[in-house]
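Methods: holo model generation. Sequences were used as deposited, without trimming of termini or removal of tags, and paired with ligand SMILES retrieved from the corresponding compound records. Each pair was processed once, and we did not select among multiple samples. The sequence and 5-O-phosphono-D-xylulose SMILES for this entry were:
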Amino acid sequence: MAVQISPSILSADFARLAEEAKAVGGPGGADWLHVDVMDNHFVPNLTLGVPVVESLSRATDTPLDCHLMIEDPDRWAPQYVEAGAGSVTFHVEAAAAPVRLAREIRAKGARASMALKPATPIEPYEDLLPELDMLLIMTVEPGFGGQAFLDIMLPKIRRTRELISKHGLELWLQIDGGVSASTIERCAEAGADVFVAGSAVYGAEDPAAAVRALRATAEQTVATAGWACAH
Ligand SMILES: O=C(CO)[C@@H](O)[C@H](O)COP(=O)(O)O
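and the model returned the structure below.
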């Protein structure tokens, strides 16, 4: 069962980003590198932008999974595709025209993904799902790494997995926030198949081993959970 692990560089050492990317890459390593872009407006934190993504995409073979926690993603998201991102996630709460934006991201050659903050329900967006390659359900309030996983998001993950099955979509279901060895099983059981982990990977003594351990737990759980990954 092919689950995917996307370590968040928010918990890495920003002065050594290329090395930190390599520390989780290679065979059996991370499937994606999760890049948290924050603008200090949509979330109360500031990280990095297009030039850093451009440099990082040259420094690693691991595809970049850019999570835009910014206002006006309609304007900025296409630039992240041009900078080399393999997947670009925008927040539905910030997008003026989510369908047009998803189509533009795809047309430019990246996977299009939409994120929901914890208080944003999935149901109003059921009809948009075929426009997306991935849906991201935040399992903490976006803005910071190292927060506690919000168990109250599990029913939303379950309902989203049901919608994906009902419509027969090849949509990946990513979760982000508080994912660790002690929470990943619950998330995988509920229906997630792409796992972002920051502190659980970069806070570990051996980040590559942490990626392998998270994947092994998630794969084992999905294999017995009774729903099928779309990848
Ligand atoms: O988007 C975010 C935070 O807003 C995440 O990607 C965090 O970086 C996840 O960190 P952990 O909760 O895994 O430490």
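The chain has one domain: 4-225.
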